[in-house]
Design brief:
This protein is mainly alpha-helical and about 140 residues long. The chain has 6 helices and 2 strands; from the N terminus they run H-H-E-H-H-E-H-H. The chain has a two-stranded antiparallel ribbon with strand order 1-2. The protein binds zinc ion (2 copies).
Length: about 140
């Protein structure tokens, strides 16, 4: 049998060249990891595009339009509840969930700055509270 001898030959070769075997496996692994990562990236871009095409490519607070800065924000600040349900906090999971829920209006687009600012400032972006403060000051001035 030709096949069998080939198999036997491979077995022998593997025994004699364990380093080569490891190398080949490593190469196969990185090659495929590359493909996998590329696929993941296109998939991620695809769902991100679907979500932002719906909610708009613009920060709802400061008007930032650079796509890399934009994130999806849960308006009611209860994103953490969702995270517990989904057991995942990745942006992908949020995007997938939003698509699954058919784009609920409890989400808005914010840039990273406004998103973080909102989280650190009790749910109001410092931009917003700065404007409020300014308005309050103006009101006081007008009253004088
Ligand atoms: Zn912003
Ligand atoms: Zn802001």
């Amino acid at each position: 049998m030709k096949n069998k001898s080939k198999k036997e030959y491979l077995k022998e070769w593997r025994k004699k060249n364990p380093n080569k075997v490891r190398e080949n496996f490593k190469k196969w692994h990185t090659d495929n990891l590359d493909k996998y990562n590329k696929y993941q990236r296109t998939y991620r871009n695809h769902i991100k595009k679907a979500v932002f095409d719906h909610y708009g490519w613009r920060c709802n607070c400061c008007g930032e339009t650079t796509p890399q800065f934009l994130t999806l924000d849960h308006i009611n600040n209860d994103g953490y509840k969702e995270k517990k349900v989904n057991k995942s906090s990745s942006a992908d999971a949020v995007y997938r969930n939003v698509i699954k829920l058919n784009f609920p209006d409890t989400y808005q687009v914010l840039c990273w700055n406004c998103n973080c600012g909102k989280r650190m400032n009790n749910g109001i972006c410092p931009h917003e509270s700065a404007i409020k403060e300014l308005n309050q000051r103006l009101e006081k001035l007008e009253k004088k």
